Please model this.
Amino acid sequence: MSQVVKMERHDAVAVVTIDSPPVNALSAAVRKGIVDGVNAAVADPAVKAIVITCAGRTFIAGADITEFGKPPQSPSLHDVIDVIENCPKPIVAAIHGTALGGGLELALGCHYRVATKEAKIGLPEVKLGLLPGAGGTQRLPRAVGPELAVKMIVGGDFIGAAEALKAGAVDEIVDAQVAGGEAFAKKVIADKKPLRKLRDDDSKLAAAKADKSIFTNAAAAANKKNRGLEAPLAAAEAVSHSLDQPFDQAIKSERELFTKLMNGEQSKAQRYAFFAEREAAKVAGVPDGTKGRDVKSVAIIGAGTMGGGIAMSFANAGIPVTLIETGDEQLKRGLGIMQKNYDATAARGGIPADAPAKRMGLIKGMVGIENVKDADLIIEAVFETMAIKKEVFGKIDQFAKKGAVLATNTSYLNINDIAAMTKRPQDVLGMHFFSPANVMKLCEIVRAEKTAPDALVTAVNIAKKIAKVPVVVGVCDGFVGNRMLAARGKQAEKFLFEGALPQQVDAVLTKFGMPMGPFAMGDLAGLDIGWRSRQDRGIKSEIADAICEAGRFGQKTGKGYYKYEAGSRAPLPDPEIEKLIEETTAKMGIKRRQISDDEILERLMYPMINEGARILEEKIAQRPSDIDITWLYGYGWPVYRGGPMFYADSVGLKKIADRLSFYAKQTNDPTLEPTPLLKKLADEGKTFASLAKG
Ligand code: 3H9
Model:
């Protein structure tokens, strides 16, 4: 008897039910249980048809990812699907929740499929750096036609039951999976329906035979969207074999491509990122069973770029928000920008035409901070100045209701000091969104000294609800992401003095896979902000200051470290900058030198990793993988490189520690010496990942 799959006979229908929480993944035990269940049903002469279905919240969510990279155990998923497809009695897959990856491949091996109304199906393997490896690249095009199939497989996106029915992937929509599956099976018996096998049905391929451009177009689109990823290109190739190879040969090609991806570095990194993201949502150091507080209403203070973006994130998730400003003028301006932003997205086809009105309808603009009084969660997004934040929190404390969670969106400031302005520091924490807040998925949830566990859990829950990826961090200057960014920025700036130009430094990072380098990023954010902050703090930076003194504030002035053509965001190298840098360094008596790309990469990355190690030592981040998630979702770190700490492990910590010591001496900067934690791990031949295991 299987612990995870049971078989019951209801009249002439055998129901094989998989019950392997949380998501019925196809572990070895589940695979064996299905084969045993089907074989038992075949052996029972009273059974005329079989239903395969799942208990719990979902149909099979795919192969068991935790088994990848370990020695294979039989039966393989291929074996299971062969048993199903070649079964002498008709088999109906009854789908609810999500049928994903190997789960959908198994369903496509069944002779018929039914799904509940809210069910979704998809082959998201590319998101793990893989492609469907159990026949999905061949059976899906035969079910829905190659055009939709390649779109689904290369993009990894799901479709709903209604679309699946229309496209031909399911045969009927049912109210409940088990009863609906049984009823359909009875019809199959009564109508003597044939043992339909997708592998033998080429009818939908015939029309597409002439035009193979759908595959090259899908590959080109994937390449444009996600530079450097191998899986989408391999997936497009695998699906294309549905047209130029017989079924069995195409399955062999699929297997070869799948195995190559599975053994490659990219998928390893992407699988790591999948689990790291889920791990990040688990808050260490709160008592087991801590529940979040109820959040029925949300208020956001400040309708500027950040406040507006945060409000849009809530509206996008269908949650009403009150957006608070100090005056009508500011409120009108903020709401106007949001409306324009939504209209532009709708015009591009990014959201339905009626979405802007619906979403703006969820955002209620109000003047006066007293309007926070009904909110369960208040997020402050005003100017990044301690004095102003303190004043605002003093006022929030006056008006907010008891038990409300009070969050600040500060990106650097000490939240303990902000919390001290209230009589309820246990309710205060940080929710640091990243710009543009309606797009970027990261939300650093900052735990201050006195933050109550249930307040923390509330913030994590609400961040997930608005489709953000929460990472819990501690209080320090810049938290995790910006603190590491500062370590990188310091080196980037030094390079300009030593001999490199902005375009050389940036190109090293874009070649690595980052969406942009530090100088293009500075131009995008606006150089005047840092300039003003340096003036406040009495800090000089000769090149950056000279650029701002020349009125070059970045993209908004059409010139910064680069120049920009009217209406374009593409950075163009500017000879004027080259001249400015050379003149400035000449005046300072610096002899410039050729700097290699290798040196640039090492000196940008390793100090950042060193800072990450320091962050772990100080327990500002709970785990190395949390730092990786911060960079994946907040700064566009390429997912196929897993994140800075994962990357460090792949380079080897000994090499990183040695190079840091070398650069500390070369540039006369002792802060570059490896931190005690990095040094210890390097000396012991260990990785950052070993810390998580410990
Ligand atoms: C594949 O199928 C390859 C085949 O083509 C070929 C094979 C030869 N395995 O996300 P959640 C865990 S590749 C193992 O928080 P939700 C997850 O880690 C696979 N574990 O829930 C978490 O554990 P914990 C193709 C899995 O409701 C728990 O389940 N399939 C798997 O927000 C809950 O997950 C995919 O890529 C798995 N396959 O979302 C689908 N899936 O509680 C991947 C989940 O310990 N999964 N877990 O942290 C998903 O997209 C989402 O989990 C899903 C549910 C939408 C299903």
